[in-house]
Design goal:
rod-shaped; mainly alpha
């Protein structure tokens, strides 16, 4: 009976059925034929059970770690791919001077938290490029506005000059014909142009005197 119980326990240990093995060894122990052997077998089965459980746990922990490492590696690989795509999109937008699109892409890269230093540097560069471009556009617009204003003023002055010279010429012609009122009207027209007021005033005063002299002569 003892030998049968021991054999049954040994077979259970071989099959890693440790609880069954301990039960069989306890049957052998109950026979009180060889308590030392029974107790030793029970202790060995307990240790074998603990060792097997430790091995299973170690394997499970190792697998869990390997799975976690693989998942983390996949996550990091996706982050890297997404980050690089966002940076590439931002660089392309920046090259096309689409600064807001570039900033959007670079902020996406920043939110991925893969390489914050690079993303922040790209954002800073995009902001500076945007500011520089806006300053350049404003400077060009200001320069064009000034050039247009200068051209308009030059054209206005040229027209004033032509109108003034015509009015003076008409006035001088009227004086020659002793049409003093017509001359005075022409010189007043010249004066109203505000091109060379001193000349117009001088001409007007001269015609007044010439008119008075002629009236006196008559």
């Amino acid at each position: 009976e003892f030998d049968a119980a021991i054999k049954k326990g040994d077979d259970a240990v071989s099959a890693k059925k440790f609880d069954d093995a301990v039960a069989a060894y306890n049957v052998a122990l109950a026979t009180q034929i060889d308590d030392a052997t029974s107790n030793a077998k029970i202790a060995a089965a307990g240790k074998a059970k603990a060792d097997e459980e430790a091995r299973i746990k170690a394997e499970a922990d190792a697998k869990a770690k390997a799975d976690a490492d693989a998942a983390n590696a996949a996550k990091q690989a996706k982050k890297k791919a997404d980050f690089e795509k966002a940076i590439k999109d931002g660089d392309a937008a920046l090259s096309s001077k689409k600064f807001d699109d570039a900033l959007t892409a670079f902020n996406i890269a920043l939110n991925i938290h893969f390489d914050d230093a690079t993303a922040n540097s790209k954002i800073e560069s995009a902001n500076k490029a945007k500011a520089d471009e806006e300053a350049r556009i404003k400077a060009e617009a200001d320069a064009k506005a000034k050039a247009d204003a200068d051209a308009a003023n030059a054209a206005e002055q040229a027209k004033k000059k032509a109108d003034f010279e015509k009015a003076i010429k008409d006035g001088d012609a009227a004086i020659t014909s002793k049409k003093f009122d017509d001359a005075l009207s022409a010189y007043n027209n010249a004066l109203n142009i505000h091109y060379v007021d001193a000349t117009a005033n001088r001409k007007r005063e001269s015609i007044k005197k010439a008119k008075a002299d002629e009236e006196k002569r008559l």
